[in-house]
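Figure S7 source data.
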Amino acid sequence: MKITDAKVFVGGPAKNYVTLKIMTDQGVYGLGDATLNNRETLPAAYLRDYLIPNLIGMDPRNSEDIWQFFYRGAYFRRGPIAMAAYGAIDMALWDIKGKLAGMPLYQLFGGKSRDGALVYAHATGADLEDLMDSIAYYVEQGYKAVRVQCGIPGMPTASYAVPEEKGHTRNYITDYTGIRPKVEIWDTDRYRRYMPEALARIRERFGPDLKILHDVHHRLTPREAAEFAKAVEPVGLFWLEDPTPAEDQDALRLLRQHSTVPVAIGEVFNSIWDCNKLIENELIDFIRVAVTYAGGITHVKRIVDLAGLHHVRTGFHGAPSHSPLGMAAQAHLNAWAPNFGIQEYLVLGTPECDALFPSEHNMRNGMMYVSDAPGLGVDFDEGEAGRYEYKPASHPVVRLEDGTMWNY
Ligand code: GCO
Ligand code: MG
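Tokens for the predicted D-gluconic acid complex:
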């Protein structure tokens, strides 16, 4: 069996999805996702200029060897652009394998460990009152877990995942059109004075059963993070996300010494080498990698297995920028993983997105149910894809009030 051709598409409704389609001499094709949010053209160029010309003629069933060929063969290892490109190839090869076997991918991993996978939604508000309305909306929709972010009184601008004005409380997306980023101003002192009390009021209003998550988005130093974690401990958070910039794998020691708040980290990681110390030293409780830019199913499965040895559960990244293909790969891992924790899932669910990526994966009552179709269980309509083109966009950047650059 041989790979005969492969194509890359960049574009989509509201988001620039990077979609890879690998064709074979047996008519079976595979689909993969290389969407690296706001840098989408780069994995696409790597695929087109180097990886696809090498793929042609290879046996698509040898997904492990093909992964090793590209990873080891590049000499310069890792990095989100390369890992997203390998990730797309890997997903597409698993898709082909599933279709050849006539089985959904979760069956090839070891079958289902659960029926539905718990997901969390994003509640947001320009202020706490707005946020309470947003949480109430998701609870009414049947969500059992909600991530909560709100505007901080006196903060010079809105900060991460928070709208500028009241009333924009559903699926608020923090990306901005254009190459030049919007600038947000951040003040740690105002945040740490306000947020613990706000979280306590949310717990009081919604009672003990709601799983409450909060994302610090890399803004605190290790000492501040330890202090913050201690302050929010009575709230009983499901997790505290990205309290510190995650490239320092030792930063969480101080937090661990001072608090038992569950910690989730890893959406910016792209390899096992970015999180092996965090996992082996049991400094985190949830690993947040995404199948898309952490090298695909082959590599992420290794991370999940390492995590399982150390009581670390999965909480895969699923921001609105994730393509239904990457989310499907995660849905299959979520169905199988013995150490599954939760899935971030932003239901953009527009008719345009469903038309581009037809699938039978579905969401009910805050749970995600995986499709039983062979392979990934998502198709790609090339006719629909022709309607979209790449539109540059950018994450905001963050500065302190005196102009110093900070972490978005
Ligand atoms: C999350 C993330 C995102 C990121 C975005 C960057 O928890 O979902 O923090 O909102 O900011 O994915 O591309
Ligand atoms: Mg996050």
